[in-house]
């Protein structure tokens, strides 16, 4: 949080808001969003697919017409791909081209291919803009510092089991 705040304050330079045009100048912000979506993809199993022909994959026979679920959650926490996968470390995205637009299959919170999320650009633009300005205008601290429970509820879309309670203090 400290790093993000520092970068945002540097770009804000005392102006009333971070304008949309300046969002690209905050690489740490994008890294924080990527890391958040890596660990907490809202749709962890994407949408179901159906195979259109017989294929053999890693020794398994998958007949035509099989419903295939893609576990993006497991891929995003696979220790053979990610160093310390359970750790929240936005820095891992700073010097890499790894992106969530469906070309890097290790990070697919928006899915990939023809049925990939059509709302991705809108979602990212809004999330970056909102996060940048929330962090710019408020000091955010956890109300439950000692017991932050990140357990999730099961489902096609994932929600926190326990809400994260945040104290937002307006910055001077
Ligand atoms: C952080 C925000 C969002 C996330 C993580 C997300 C994620 C996803 C995922 C994983 C899929 C399934 C992709 C696949 O199976 O390959 C999907 C599909 C879809 N998303 Fe999003 N989405 C987000 C925001 C949005 C927004 C803002 C819109 C619309 C404005 C949107 C509209 C859709 C639609 C219409 C589909 C179905 C596409 C189809 O079935 O062909 N999404 N999204």
Name the features.
alpha+beta, two-stranded antiparallel sheet, 4 helices, 27% helix, elongated
Characterization of the model:
The chain starts with a helix and ends with a strand. It is α+β, with helices and mostly antiparallel strands and 172 residues long. A hairpin with a 2-residue loop joins strand 2 and strand 3. The mean pLDDT is 94. 27% of the residues lie in helices and 14% in strands. It has helices spanning 2-12, 27-39, 72-76, 120-137; strands spanning 49-50, 55-57, 60-62, 67-68, 138-142, 152-153, 159-160, 166-170. It has a two-stranded antiparallel ribbon with strand order 1-4. A two-stranded antiparallel sheet has the order 2-3. A two-stranded antiparallel sheet has the order 5-8. Helix 1 (2-12) packs across helix 4. Bound molecules: protoporphyrin IX containing FE (HEM). Residues 42-43, 46-47, 109-112, 115-119, 122-123 line the site of protoporphyrin IX containing FE.
